[in-house]
Write a structure and sequence with these properties.
Elements (H helix, E strand, L loop, with lengths): L2 H19 L6 H22 L5 H24 L8 H10 L19 H27 L4 H30 L17 H8 L2 H19 L1 H24 L5 H18 L1 H7 L4 H11 L2 H4 L2 H16 L8
Helix pairs in contact: 1-2, 1-3, 2-3, 3-9, 5-6, 6-14, 8-9, 9-10, 9-14, 10-11
Organism: Ohtaekwangia koreensis
Protein name: Membrane bound O-acyl transferase family protein
Pathway: Secondary metabolite biosynthesis
Length: 325
């Protein structure tokens, strides 16, 4: 028996139960203290209990439990003293969907909503992602000097499979059950500013979460700009947990990536020259791509790619026919 897995599951079940009952607390401050303390405990528990496991195993365990703890934070901010979900609805929201809007599950189950387009999109994106993974392997084996090209194909390929593929299939399944979920990644290539990219197009669940648990609570007390920077700081910390902790390397780099993006977003709203750039039909998209791609080695540093993403790619391709790449 895998004792580590048993401990992880037991801890996850504890999070599930605590996360359900916390919103019943009338004192929101008390609920916040408990749920954020629980989030911190979750980080150290998941990182500690998996210390001897592979980096990929650690990443999955750490991210899964941290996601569940963040769901609990969202519940406390959404429902204060008056739980809006049944336990079954809470389980569906917390365990079955990556989004961060529990209100969508208040009417679960309901009559089906249109879902076919999500299935078509999901399957097609998975197919594209698999092709990119094969391309990544081909470049890696035949063009040693093109490391970044291989890494880029790997990153985009995995993103196509997970973010644009599996999550769309997940959305289809929930829409079939009457839950009005939407795409969480919405044509990010159309973004003309980092504000639009992070706020409206890339990982909507994450932006909704940081807005709900950081930006909105802090905006009135410290102002919108510091609150926005605090939201990016939290994003950086959470990505440190997901990326640097599993490989015990690269600490500070993902955080720096999000600090840079927070500063650039501030510049987009305050500096006239930058405003003119993001107002240009073509330069605005170049601006976004440059800020996303150039500092990307900070976010996905070499150790994470080597010990998490490459094994993940190889595990996926091992299930598929070998093309001799």
């Amino acid at each position: 028996m895998d004792i580590t897995l048993v401990c992880l599951v037991a801890f996850g079940l504890s999070l599930l139960l605590i996360g359900y009952f916390l919103p019943f607390l009338k004192n929101k401050t008390t609920a916040r203290i408990i749920v954020w303390s629980l989030g911190i405990i979750t980080v150290f528990f998941s990182a500690g209990i998996t210390a001897e496991e592979s980096a990929l195993y650690r990443m999955i365990a750490i991210v899964s439990l941290q996601l569940l703890s963040m769901k609990a934070v969202v519940m406390v901010e959404t429902y204060s003293g008056n739980m809006g979900l049944t336990f079954i609805q809470w389980c569906a929201f917390s365990l079955g969907w990556f989004g961060m809007r529990p209100v969508l599950f208040e009417k679960f189950p309901s009559p089906p909503l249109p879902y076919i387009s999500f299935i078509v999109t999901g399957i097609s994106r998975i197919a594209v992602g698999i092709v990119l993974l094969y391309i990544s392997v081909y470049i890696e084996r035949n063009f040693i000097n093109l490391y970044y090209a291989s890494a880029l194909a790997l990153l985009v390929g995995l993103s196509m499979i997970l973010h644009f593929g599996i999550l769309n299939l997940s959305a289809a399944s929930w829409r079939l059950s009457g839950v009005d979920v939407k795409e969480l990644f919405r044509s990010p290539y159309k973004a003309s500013s980092l504000k639009e990219f992070w706020g409206k197009r890339w990982n909507i669940a994450f932006s909704e979460m940081t807005s709900l648990i950081i930006y909105r609570p802090l905006k009135n007390s410290i102002g919108p700009t510091p609150a926005m920077l605090a939201a990016f700081l939290l994003s950086g910390i959470l990505h440190e947990i997901a990326i640097s902790f599993p490989v015990n390397a690269g600490f500070g780099l993902p955080l720096l990536y999000f600090v840079i993006h927070g500063i650039v977003m501030y510049a987009e709203g305050e500096i006239p020259f930058v405003k003119r750039i993001i107002g240009h039909r073509i330069l605005s998209h170049v601006w976004v791509m440059l800020w996303l791609i150039l500092p990307m080695p900070l976010l996905f540093h070499a150790q994470f790619i080597k010990y998490v993403l490459v094994p993940c790619r190889d595990a996926i391709l091992s299930l598929l026919p070998s093309l001799g790449v």
